[in-house]
Amino acid sequence: MARARVDLDAVFASLAHPIRRSIIERLSMGECTVSDLAKPHDVSAPAISKHLRVLEDAGLLEQTPDGRVRRCNLNAAPLSAAFAWIVRYRLFWEDALNALAKHMEGDRKR
After folding, report:
1. Closest by alpha carbon to 51, among 12, 21, 6?
2. Is a pLDDT exceeding 50 seen at residue 32?
3. What's the CA gap between 1 and 15, in Å, rounded?
4. Whose C-alpha in 78, 86, 94, 105 is 20 to 30 A from the C-alpha of 11?
5. Beta-carbon neighbour count of residue 23 at 10 Å?
6. Distance between CA atoms of 71 and 47, rounded to whole angstroms?
7. Per-residue model confidence as pLDDT tens digits over 67-92
8. How far is residue 58 from each of residues 65, 68, 82, measured CA to CA in Å?
9. H or E element: which one contains 72?
10. For position 45, what pLDDT does the model report?
11. 34 contact partners, CB below 8 Å, separation of at least 6
12. Do residues 59 and 28 make contact, with C-beta atoms less than 8 angstroms apart?
């Protein structure tokens, strides 16, 4: 089975808002309803729906209708892709800064 392509721009944009990060944190503990996700936030139902839509568009949220209730689950695969991207560039910058530090130490010894 082919892996779905992750839109890193959508993932990072979805993580840019504290309510969406809070929702992801709650979803990391397990399935819950839209009402459960909305409770801790002092925003309207349409605002929560918009946040959920952003997370769903980024591939981070899966919603399943269950009668009148929508059950939500976290899909962590896009977060893994974003983490891999961050790690790759962290290693690049660490190597570059280590090389610069060695170069600067060499200049001090002369």
Report:
1. 21
2. yes
3. 28
4. 94
5. 28
6. 18
7. 999 999 999 999 999 999 898 888 88
8. 19, 24, 11
9. strand 69-74
10. 93
11. 48, 49, 52, 63, 69, 70, 72
12. no
CA 49, CA 11: separation in Å to the nearest integer?
17
- Give residue 47's Cα distance to chain centre: 19
> pLDDT (tens digit, 9 = 90+) per residue, 89-104?
888 888 888 888 888 8
Amino acid at the residue 77: A
Predicted pLDDT at 109: 66
- Tell whether the model's pLDDT for residue 1 goes beyond 60: no
pLDDT of residue 4: 62
Which two structure tokens, joined as six digits, stand for 41? 């936030």
